[in-house]
Amino acid sequence: MIDYFELLQEQRRPHLEVAALKQHFLQLSSAEHPDRFHTAPEEERQRANQRYAALNTAYICLREPKERLRHLLELESPARLKDIQRIPPGTMDLFVEVGQLCRDVDAFLAERNQVTSPILKVQWFQKGLEWTDKLNTVQQRVNAKRNELTAELEQMNTAWEQAPPPGAPDRPAALPLERLEQIYRTFSYTSRWTEQIQEHLVQLSC
């Protein structure tokens, strides 16, 4: 498995500053950009394209918390990703709330689509605004959860910075991998909830 942290010359850690990561990526990838090799022999151009593509893939992975944590877990403890469908601790309330709200909005949309009277359409438009407000309120709660987890990841960096080097037999015991797995699964859910909420907001605006 390619270590994207190593490829981008970043130390393995749960939290990365995205702006700094982008700047680092641009510095590394500029030397491999295909435009620099347009007059080079075919074999050299292909190697440059492969290196540039690998750097780009690594950057796309590490800039997103969910993908970064998944990759970190794959590097440190791949067995922990076998059961990612379990609901992480502290997220059940949001899990239930988002699910119920989306079902309620689906029911509202189904009824609204049956309305043909212009007067009734105005009334249903007002009701749609109320559902939009509810969705936005829940999205704020989801965002707050993500921000809370991001702050925790930043604090967890210390454990990775102080841990034995990769490959050392005592490294796994020095890392909070169980908590990292929980945070990864929570990020997976928050991403899914955001997609569901945004999808319903679009439908309400139509």
Describe the overall structure.
- This protein is mostly helical.
- It folds into two domains: 60 residues, Orthogonal Bundle (Helix Hairpins); 122 residues.
- It has eight helices and no strands.
- α4 packs antiparallel against α8.
Number of domains: 2
Mean pLDDT: 91
The N- to C-terminal Cα distance equals 45 Å
Strand content: under 5%
Structural class: mainly alpha
Please, how many helices?
Answer: 8
User: Secondary-structure element order, as H and E?
Assistant: HHHHHHHH
The beta-strand count equals 0
Helix content: over 70%
Unreliable segments (pLDDT under 50, ≥5 consecutive)?
none
Radius of gyration (CA) equals 23 Å
Short description:
The protein is 73% helix and 0% strand. It is an all-alpha fold and 206 residues long.
Keywords:
single chain; mainly alpha; Helix Hairpins; 2 domains; 8 helices
Topology:
Layout: H1 4-7, H2 18-30, H3 42-63, H4 65-76, H5 92-112, H6 118-162, H7 171-174, H8 177-205
Helix pairs in contact: 2-3, 4-8, 5-6, 5-8, 6-8
